[in-house]
Amino acid sequence: MTENQQANATKDNLQAPLIRTLQAHDDAALAAVIREVSAEYGLTPDKGFSVADKTLDCLSEVYQAEGSQYWVIEYQGKVVGGAGIAPLAKNDGVCELQKMYFSRAIRGQGMAKPLTRQCIEFAKQQGYQSMYLETTAVLVEALALYEKLGFSHCQHLGETGHDACEIAMIKAL
User: Fold this and answer.
1) Mean pLDDT lowest for which of 76-80, 97-101, 135-139, 163-167?
2) Any idea where the N-acetyltransferase domain is (predicted)?
3) Sheet harboring 152-153: ordered strands across?
4) Higher-confidence residue: 165 or 79?
């Protein structure tokens, strides 16, 4: 490797991750991240986790609905994670934090808090009064983050289709 190539490689490694809205050309990469992370944690499609969602390969279409938005994290030119907000059906004023996944390449780099805060700010701007989420105990890091950000445990709300997520949490906005 030449000195110039080494300098460029170092520069690329230091490139800050970027949070941006999901675009149609991101769908396949995002679905791959969700499948990869789900497999890593044993969240298989047959157990009712979001990896089984029929819309997984076309999330940019799903998040065009009113009151919805999804952001991806791009790092070194690749989609490496993301999270979204959508209204929680049959629960006026409540949105759901959905599909928050991070590949190994981005974990531990401090992106979860700013991404969650982005989601919270959007939810407030949309007029939601509460943010709900469902998760599972195997996602220890996610649970700690949610608790740190003021989410508290609650009863399950709505029909999310993720019956394997045994933990429900909510945060007043």
Assistant:
1) 163-167
2) 17-173
3) 18-21, 69-75, 78-87, 94-102, 130-135, 167-172, 152-153
4) 79
Bridge-partner residues for 172, per DSSP? 130
- Number of folded domains that form the chain: 1
Cα–Cα dist 39/2, whole Å: 38
pLDDT digits (tens, 9 = 90+) for 21-65: 999 999 999 999 999 998 888 877 766 667 667 888 999 999 999
φ, ψ (nearest 5 deg) of residue 58: -140, 45
**Angle formed at CA 76 by CA 72 and CA 81, multiple of 5 degrees:** 25
- Beta-bridge partners for 72: 20, 82
Which CATH number does the domain housing residue 21 bear?
A: 3.40.630.30
pTM for this model (two decimals): 0.85
How many Cα neighbours within 13 Å face the side chain of 171? 20
Name residues whose C-beta falls within 8 Å of residue 79's C-beta, 6 or more positions apart in sequence: 26, 29, 30, 33, 72, 73
